[in-house]
Amino acid sequence: MEYVAHETQPHNPNSKTRVLFASLVGTTIEFFDFYIYATAAVLVFPHLFFPESSGSAALLQSLATFSIAFVARPIGAVIFGHLGDRIGRKATLVTALLLMGISTICIGLLPTYAQIGVAAPILLALCRLGQGLGLSGEWSGAVLFATENAPKGKRAWYGMFPQLGSPIGFILAASSFLLLGAFLSNEEFMAWGWRIPFIASALLVFVGLYIRLKLHESPAFQNVLNKQTASKVPFKDVVSTHLGKVVLGTLATVCTLVVFYLMTVFALNWGTNVLGYSRDDFLKMQMVATLCFGLCIPLSAMMAEKFGRKRTSIAICILTIIFGLFFSTFFVAQNAVSVLIFLCLGLGIMGLTYGPLGTILSEIFPVSVRYTGSALAYNFGSILGASFAPLIATKLAETYGLYAVGYYLCIAAAVSLFAFVCIRETKDDDIMC
User: Fold this and answer.
1) Which terminus of the chain is more exposed, N or C, with fewer CB under 10 A?
2) 91-121 as b/e, with b when 16 or more CB fall inside 10 Å?
3) Are residues 351 and 294 in contact, defined by beta-carbon separation less than 8 angstroms?
4) Rounded mean pLDDT of 163-170?
5) Is residue 24 scored above 90 in pLDDT?
6) Which InterPro entries match (predicted)?
7) Nearest of 64, 192, 40, 183 to residue 122 by alpha carbon
8) Where would I find the H helices in 13-88?
């Protein structure tokens, strides 16, 4: 798709409140949609879409569909990155939100294996593919829109608002399943109750679209349009000129995503199926721990603003390695207090790693290819760090024990530590160019 500005357009500034709320609400919706799938992939889909397999095989097949979205995300990064760097952040954000929302609603309407046979898991996989494509364009665009509208000295603070959508979306997702569990029997929940969060997401999508359609383009990208300097083929320019930054950005993302999916999808599966905690009890503990996740995001953003992105991220990676060495110490059966401490520590560390990440990925690329570059780095990082993390962790835990999962986390943190050592400090850079 081509766009050329034939005349200079004045920039209409967005209000601070609208920018921050639009960045937050969109990612909240996206992550709500994503997390209800993650929860259902453990609790529901093995029974309704893969019933012909044994219990463990059905779970692994269900988690495999969870991984499909991550494999699709680099493709979405190229598509939405091209749109974001050619026609603008606003239009691309609206499109990404629509794709994610429609895919999620369709999951709630799917027939099960008992109704249409093998076509059911195939359709589930296709919807999951749509979710992955939508999220690949949403996250990067929301972070860019926030940081490119930020005043001087506030980019890390603005850039963390889209990150807050993750814990908020998780709390909404977990709450919806807890409410369903409270008011429905297990039979009712498995028969039709699980569909409610997927279909109800339509309301959230409508709210997100309404807010985003009222935004103006970011000042940094409006400047590109006015000067007619938009990249003709952003993907080509990124690969030919900024490939090293993509690689470092990818590696920097790995730790964040490994720790998150270990503390959510893997922990929920292991805690309910192996350690013996009930679904409701474990979801409640995860919700409490998610508050630590949310509180640590602005904390790390303030640290990145004061001490720099590089030093802050290096320190957090070292903290993650220490946590990984003690991974199996607290995650035990018949001790809810110990598990709650484990979840709070893990998701708190997740918040620390996540807070400045979006700002870092946006600042290392020039504005003309910033959407494509940051989207590629984040989504390739999703493949390495998140797509198979629940599967790898499950196999490690079954074969060697939970301590091996901790070592897996240590390796992921060491990979990101290496990347942050190599990435230059961007705190004082001018992101208008």
Assistant:
1) N
2) bbbbbbbebbbbbbbbbbebebbeeeeeebb
3) yes
4) 89
5) no
6) MFS, MFS_dom, MFS_sugar_transport-like, MFS_trans_sf, MHS_symport, Sugar_transporter_CS
7) 64
8) 16-43, 45-48, 55-86
Binning the chain into helix, strand and coil, the percentages to the nearest 5 are 80, 0, 20
State whether residue 213 is helix, strand or coil.
coil
Encode burial over 387-407: b for 16+ CB neighbours within 10 A, e otherwise.
bbbbbbbbebbeeeebbbbbb
Provide the token pair at 156: 């890390």
DSSP state of 218: P
Instruction: Fill in the DSSP letter of residue 321.
Output: H
Tokens 């570059």 correspond to: 373
**pLDDT for 11 beyond 60:** no
- pTM to 2 decimals? 0.83
Find where tokens 């499109």 sit: 95
Ordered by start, the domain boundaries in the chain are 16-214+233-422
| Sign for the pseudo-dihedral over CA of 356, 287, 34, 323 | positive
List pLDDT tens digits, range 237-276.
Answer: 999 999 999 999 999 999 999 998 899 888 988 998 889 8
16-214+233-422 classified as CATH 3.30.470.30: no
